[in-house]
Amino acid sequence: MDLTVVAYVVYLAISGALTVWVAWTLSRAGKVFLADVLHGNEKLAEAVNHLLVVGFYLVNLGFVALYLKGGDNIGNTRELFEALSVKVGVVLLVLGGMHLANVYVLNRIRRRGVMERDQIPPVPPQGWTGAPVAGPGPWTAPTPPPAGA
What is the pTM of this model? Predict the structure, then answer.
């Protein structure tokens, strides 16, 4: 069998397995993070998680398929390992880059939600402070104690 075909088969097996493993790991660990980003809406978090996994598979497996073709013919075992290391290394970098981009975007969404939650006062306003504009307001200044008491 031609070593180029062996390189293709090994590359597809390794890249496919890595893509599935990373997607499964991110999906499992990302459920809690998405639930926090989406304010505890578990059903929505599950749906978004599933959509992210499908998108992850499509982009990464599409990249793996497009990156399959090699420029040189592989003549010996050393060239086989060199070609595989370059191809698998690039796939790992793409997987890592996609992961970092997803975490960055979700963290920005989460941070915005936390800032919005922090802006809501814990207790609704109960009265006015400061000088009344027209007549006495709901708050009046305390009266000083009598002068000889």
Answer: 0.65
